[in-house]
Amino acid sequence: MEINNSKITVIIPTTAEWKRFDAIKRAVESIRKSSDEKVLIIASVNGSKFHLEVCEWLKAQPDVIYIYNDIGSAPLAHIRGRELVKTPYFSFLDDDDEYLKHALDIRLKILEENQNVSLVVTNGYSVTKNVQNIHYKNMCNVNEDQFYALYQENWLHNCNHLFRTADIKIEFFKNYVQYLEWTWLAFKICIAGLKVVAMDEKTFLYYDTEDSLSKSDAYNGTFPKLAKKMLAMSPPKNIKSQITYKLAEHFHFYSVQLLKSGNVTMSLKYHLKSIFQYRGFKYLLYTRYIIFPTLLKYAA
């Protein structure tokens, strides 16, 4: 496909494993149905788990550009794909999710009619065990205060956006984090002062599986490191408060998990971290669950 004939590029980061083949085909077909415009697809294959037949199928598609990186990393696959974008607009789609019909047309209309908008995000559906639920509950809040709304509900997702290429440059994808990369990207877009428009229209299906990366321990343990990077960029005072409040929540979560596993010392450490964050005092009463069992243990 000629790039000059396309307005939009969609990047699919994928490991191209055999077990994902049907989902990859579904994702590609959903992109084709998502716009009346010609859409260019970049399959950014990464890692060593790929299956040759899957790769050959991708290479054979007339609207797909196939690229490969031997390092297995979704954020790095994003960068490799973004490097090749020549169209005015671009987006991403995970290989196990899909766009709904005319999803990209709906997003494109906003960007073409509003030259001051750098990014449009939409609502969609999460699919868990074949049950669809609306993914976002508060999309309207984004248009009121996009930076503050980010800490109420992360409004940027792998399949709900369309970027203006001239504004969302490749630098936004560098200095990445391995997990929570969409929260980090949304933060950088906000702190750069770029305008985001949110729509409650449903344009995607996100398949929430039991082995989703978002459920992994590594994913859940990323936020404290990410918070440090965010705070280092000197966000507005109200945003700094939201970041430290989220830190309190995460530290409390770790404390509870550690106590359940019997690691009282580390549980107490994270508990103290939680109560010294913004509004962390609400966890103060949890102290009794750590201290009292410990005293009883030594008293016995």
Automatic annotation (TrEMBL):
Spell out the Gene3D superfamilies in the cross-references. Answer: Spore Coat Polysaccharide Biosynthesis Protein SpsA, Chain A
Q: What is the lineage of its organism?
A: Bacteria, Pseudomonadati, Pseudomonadota, Gammaproteobacteria, Alteromonadales
- Top-rank taxon: Bacteria
Q: Which InterPro entries match?
A: Glyco_trans_2-like, Nucleotide-diphossugar_trans
One matching Pfam family: Glycos_transf_2
Q: Which stretches are annotated as coiled coil?
A: none
Where's the Glycosyltransferase 2-like domain? Answer: 9-157
Q: What is this protein called?
A: Glycosyltransferase 2-like domain-containing protein
